[in-house]
Amino acid sequence: MRSDEEAMMADETRKKKKGKMPLPILVVLVICVVVLGVSIWQLSTIFLEYKAGTDEYDKLQTYVSGDPAEEVVQTAAEDGENADDTEAEDASEERVQRVAISELQAQNSDTVGWIQIPGTQISYPLMHTTDDSYYLNHTFSKKVNGAGSIFVETLNSADFTDLHTIIYGHNMKNGSMFAGLKEYRSASYLVAHPNVYVDLADGTHAYQIFSVYEADADSDSYTIGFAPDETYEEYLKTIKGRSLYDTSVTVTREDSIITLSTCTKHGEKRFLVHAKKLY
């Protein structure tokens, strides 16, 4: 028989073995802690980047005075009823100057205007440069940020004189930039938000949405450089026919249009919103 001392030593050894964590489990636990730490750091970085972008664009709203309501133009036209057409037109242009474009250009010369869809989060400066990739990850202040900016296709004229002008923006997870465009999948949303407003140096311009749909990144929907001819007319019929639903808006070869484009489905597709110029 073992002595009492041997028995006590054996019992102590068993207790030590019982309290010791197996190495494989310890390794897994350490890995889990590291992964959790990295995930928290990544989420914090994304959150701070989102906040920085949102804060910057929120501050720029001070350069916009009032909503781009159509009744402003109607009132201006009424004021010119007894005047000739030129005077009425001048009155309208004077009434709708509501964005301090020159002040924004003084801060960033790439600024060409402002885009807004009333009742949504879309209200941003419009940028235009010789490199379409630059404003994918640079804000208005030219700071590196995943939110980027809303910008006009580099091959388009900066003054929106082309028959077809394309405007790009990210589909941000926090709902900023062009994320709200996907809401146009619903016809009722279009009824509530039918117009896009673009402010340029010469005042406010309104565009009425006539087609919304999803397309490939290399879709012919991105064709530009049109003349007011049969080719352009056929193009308009094509993109109107692609709409998810009938918008009941007619568009002809005499109409200038804009296309708002954003990524969807992890960048595999694009969501497009086409609108024709009203004034």
From TrEMBL:
Its EC number is 3.4.22.71. GO terms for molecular function: hydrolase activity. Pfam families: Sortase. The keyword Transmembrane helix applies. Keywords: Hydrolase, Membrane, Transmembrane, Transmembrane helix. The chain crosses the membrane at residues 21-41. This is Class B sortase. The lineage of its organism: Bacteria, Bacillati, Bacillota, Clostridia, Lachnospirales.
